[in-house]
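1st attempt posting a full record on here, be nice pls
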Amino acid sequence: MSINQYIYTFSYDNTEAELCKLESKYTFKKEEENRQLFSDIRAEPSESAYIKKRFDVITSSDDYSTLVTLVKKQNIHVDDFKVEYIVLDGDTTEYTDRLKKLKDIGFSIEGDPDYYKPKITYGLCTYKGIWYFGIINKDDFAWHKHNKKPRSFSNSINVSIAKALVSIAAENNKNTSLIDACCGVGTIMLEACFSGYHIEGCDINWKATRDARINLAHFNYTTEVFRSDIKDIDKRYDAAILDLPYNLYSKATDEEVLHIIKSSAEISDRLVIVSTSDITDFIAETKFKIIDQCNVGKPGKGSFARKVWVCEK
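the predicted structure (as tokens):
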């Protein structure tokens, strides 16, 4: 593996395993496997609910002693650093040996370490006979602040699912324009804004749009929220995200669901749809085809599940 590439590690509940794989597919063009992934594509851990760490490879070798020599040749001079060992799939290195190797790497760096509040964290790992040294970037979970949004709705999707939907819709392209066609209180919009994507929202319910604006303003995000039927939106977007109504208070009829899907298909080139019901027949009535789908469970809810469909023309 050459320099300037990345190793990602993932963490997720088994109920969202399929969604994590779908997100990684559209972010990295391949699925994570065994909670890890090697890629040339750079992604920020905080923009995914599932990426735990990004390991930026500085150097590598199939011989550990050679790796230590290569690290020394980097002539790294830095204070307040730390070195961590990342255990990848198939690594059988004993704990005591890992500690020894961490000392080897630490002594190859000039400067005073800080094990508790490091300014930079270096990493060491091995995979299939290759040793890697690099910089570790972790998710700081700053997006968890959205769990304390001032307005909420009991049946809104959680922030993990919302972040994944944004990633799937945008495909790691910050120039992608998005619309949340059933924005509700803005759960999906918050995650898109946090990650720096351009998104606008639409909902026919005035209370929902009011609450979405309140939530966005609370976190100092600025974007458009339309109180409108989706069919009346006269803009075009690269992708539309649809979290279709399903609960007792906002459940839509089949005619309304079909209307939302067909109207969204008229103003976008991709659809990422979430529903608790099978909507394949509705999608078939548009010019879009289902190119991917997955199931998303809910911890502690038994058979309760949503399905995510990715559709393109």
